[in-house]
Amino acid sequence: MRLRCCMHVIAIARPLYNRARTDTPALGNNLHLKKRKQSMSIYKSSSGKGVDLCLSWIRAANGEIPDGAVCVGGDVFVARCLHEREQLPGKVANGHQFCFAPYGTEEKTYTDYQVLCETVNVGLSGSPGYQWVPWSGGSDEAPKYALIGGSDQAKPVYVARATVNGEWCSGKYIPEFGKAYFSYGGSDTATLPLFPR
């Protein structure tokens, strides 16, 4: 099934930070929190610094949808499953016992999967750690800060969403092919041809 419609790729919200303050009060164990403006937070301690992206892949099974699951639209959430040693981005939905993922011309189903969840640390609230970026492809690149959701023949694939026959779907965007793939309707895989912007 070939479709022409708007597709989005999930991307990490662009990090915008204030400069580190040397007078920041300690937050236990010499941990200092830099002030943040958007969704990422920077920590500084005596052993170094790091970034909290606020997104994690959480294991689930048999239709379970963890708290904080990233919603594609409606009752559909971003998920991925392991198939032949590669992670396939796909979807889970309320009322279904599987993760559905496109592979070749088939829709693969798995009872064990991972769900993409917002995992904000206690005390760090604010905007989500991601945004859905409209994307029409047209090159062999992904949007800036696009989230890698798995691989296809050892090449990165990105988490994407689109509506297929009026229903939200989550799947994979492969820049090299200029297409996004979404599982829909059991045996068919919806292919979204992309065009230059």
From TrEMBL:
From what superkingdom does this record's organism come? Eukaryota
Q: What is the lineage of its organism?
A: Eukaryota, Metazoa, Spiralia, Lophotrochozoa, Platyhelminthes
Q: What is this protein called?
A: Uncharacterized protein
Q: Which InterPro entries match?
A: DM9_repeat (IPR006616)
Q: Which organism is it from?
A: Macrostomum lignano
